[in-house]
Every structure is written in structure tokens, then in C-alpha cells.
Amino acid sequence: DIQMTQSPSSLSASVGDRVIITCRASQSISSYLNWYQKKPGKAPKLLIYAASRLQSGVPSRFSGSGSGTDFTLTISSLQPEDFATYYCQQSYGTYTFGQGTKLEIK
Amino acid sequence: QVQLQESGPGLVKPSETLSLTCIVSGGSVSSGDYYWNWIRQPPGKGLEWIGYMHDRGSTNYNPSLKSRVAISVDTSKNEFFLKLSSVTAADTAVYYCARVTMVRGHMFFDHWGQGTLVTVSS
């Protein structure tokens, strides 16, 4: 299996901050990388697919970059509704997810 | 708008078979454009893909669960199903059904159910 490692595991930030979450794959996955937002009791929501393509309806403050083994999710200016857990997921091989990054209010 | 909703028992005894249904509305499980998946999240842990059903019959399962998993479909009811046999406490999790879409070769989960908690306990 391709292992996905996210960092940090948790992060405290304030409204208006710029936040970067990283995801590293255990082998090259080209750009077969997706990002999701999950809030407690809610279904995960797709933010970014193919490493950098913004899903329809997702605010432009979210962006993704990277290829090969190293990827980032950037939130340019945190809004109150962005406090959640974020997961990366690869679709190069058998689907696997990162362990999640919990974004909390400072 | 596609919607998915999981249903099934919230409590299953060890060694028995876990059975869940995903009811799909706003889209057809018969469509060859999509893959219909099950994913789970044990308490306090990350997300684990279980498997998918595609094009009314073909399936693909996570190798770690393959010997115990079966995913099937009822096109007349627009539903698909998960069966996981010989369950243990390690199978306690929130189970999600989700749709995978493919765009230019890239596959991603674009619609999810709300999830249902299944506890394995005697």
C-alpha cells in the first residue's frame, strides 16, 4: 500500500491566518492526490482533486499544489467555518488516506 | 443533486456478518461513469477504503479486507450493499458510502453519505 503522511497532525491558527498542510506519499503518485475537509458528524467534503484542481463550489482561498511525493493544501485566509480536519487521499493505487490534520482555533 | 444515505444495524455481534445498505438518489448506480464505494473510520482513527462496485458488477476491494468483503447492487432500487463477514471489535467504525467520479483519469470521492456507526459487541 502507498502510505500517506500528513503534517502537522494538529494546528492552531486564527481567523485570517494563512495555513499550509503538507502530505507526503511513500512513493511517487504523480498528481493523483485529493484533499477533503471533514467536520464532526458530517460527511467529508471534496476540496481539491488532481493535486491542484479546485472542486466546483469550493472557495478560492483553498488551493493545492505538488506532484510526485510532496503536496500542500493552502488556506490563504482562514474563515471561522474552516476549522475542521483535513485529509489527503491518493488514487494512484489502492486508495489510501492520510491520518488527518486537525485545524483548531487559537 | 446526488445524495447517498447509509442504513443498517448499529450493533453487530462478534463473528457475525455486518450488512449495510446505501440508498442513492439523484443519480443512477447503473451509470458506468461512476464507482460506488464503502469507506470506514474507526473511532479516533483515520479513513480506510473498503472497496467499490462499478458498472453493475465489477468490484475491487482493499486487499486487507478482501477475504471478508462483498459489495453488490440492486439496480431496481438504486441501492448498493456492503457485507463484511466474521467481524471483530476492530471492525467497529463509522461506515460511509461514497461515489467516485473520474475526470481526465483522476478519480476522487465527490459525494458521500452522512455515515453510520456500527459497533461490534456481544
Structural commentary:
Chain A is an all-beta fold. In chain A, 0% of the residues lie in helices and 50% in strands. The radius of gyration of chain A is 13 Å and the shape is globular. Chain A starts with a strand and ends with a strand. Chain B has no helices and eleven strands. Chain B has strands at 3-7, 11-12, 18-25, 34-41, 48-54, 58-61, 69-74, 79-84, 93-103, 106-112, 116-120. The N and C termini of chain B lie far apart (39 Å). The model of chain B has no long low-confidence stretch (mean pLDDT 95). The chains are: A mainly beta (106), B mainly beta (122). Chains A and B meet through strand 5 and strand 10 of A and strand 9 and strand 10 of B.
How are the SSEs placed, and which strands pair?
The complex is a heterodimer of chains A (106) and B (122).
Chain A (H helix, E strand, L loop, with lengths): L3 E4 L2 E4 L5 E7 L7 E6 L6 E5 L3 E2 L7 E6 L2 E6 L9 E6 L5 E2 L3 E5 L1
Parallel strand pairs in A: 2-11
Antiparallel strand pairs in A: 1-3, 3-8, 4-5, 4-9, 5-6, 7-8, 9-10, 9-11
Chain B lengths: L2 E5 L3 E2 L5 E8 L8 E8 L6 E7 L3 E4 L7 E6 L4 E6 L8 E11 L2 E7 L3 E5 L2
Parallel strand pairs in B: 2-11
Antiparallel strand pairs in B: 1-3, 3-8, 4-5, 4-9, 5-6, 7-8, 9-10, 9-11
